[in-house]
Design a protein that fits this description.
The protein has about 200 residues and is of the alpha+beta class. It contains nine helices and six strands, in the order βαααβαββαβααβαα. The protein has one domain. α3 packs across α5.
């Protein structure tokens, strides 16, 4: 869909940038289990872990009693920090994407469906970025280096192209995570109904 409210990036490096959302074949896309009431979240996690004992993508649900509070703390940190950075989150718990995609995550989600959105379709104050997995970063350091779109583009300016930046970033980090805080971007897609799919509401949080 051609966005009607697309912003025009000032940086030439931003042209052609996109975000990718990965989804396991047995799950619905664009979900975040933390958006469910706590009891429902735990019940769903138990079901997913029981039904998929050998699948790495569901491993976090097998230890949900430990994962749940860590993920809550991570999302709370991201939310409050994004506000301080000038962001305007419409959700308390973001949807997870990856800048320009990730072969590592594609395999981790068992080569399930993936969904691409042009960065120009997303309001700059509705998306943030972390170099690598935000939850793992928070667990290691108790903090997260979160970037606005403007800050991310500034980092790219020292490289000849986006590919060179991503290649350098991949050395210490497997990918660049993006947190989408504006669900209206998804809902406005003309083919959103095709994206709903079937399966469990597990998402890739």
């Amino acid at each position: 869909m051609k966005g009607t409210n697309e912003w025009k990036p000032e940086s030439a490096l931003a042209e052609g940038l996109f975000l990718v959302h990965y989804c396991h074949p047995r799950c619905k896309p664009f979900q975040n289990i933390l958006r469910l009431p706590k009891e429902e979240a735990f019940a769903l996690a138990e079901k997913l872990a029981r039904e998929n004992p050998e699948d790495a993508a569901f491993g976090r649900f097998a230890d949900f009693a430990n994962y749940y509070p860590r993920r809550l703390e991570t999302d709370a940190f991201l939310y409050e920090n994004f506000l301080r950075l000038g962001g305007k989150p419409r959700e308390r718990h973001p949807l997870s994407f990856v800048l320009q995609g990730s072969g590592y995550l594609e395999n981790w989600f068992e080569n399930g469906p993936s969904y691409r959105i042009r960065l120009s379709e997303i309001p700059p104050d509705g998306v943030s970025f972390t170099l690598g997995d935000s939850c793992a970063q928070y667990e290691r350091t108790g903090a997260i280096r979160q970037l606005t779109l403007e800050q991310l583009l500034a980092r790219m300016e020292g490289f000849p192209n986006v590919e060179a930046f991503l290649e350098e970033a991949a050395k210490p980090y497997s990918y660049i995570e993006a947190q989408l805080w504006d669900g209206a971007v998804i809902e406005s897609r003309l083919y959103f109904e095709e994206w709903r799919g079937n399966g469990n509401e597990c998402g890739n949080d």
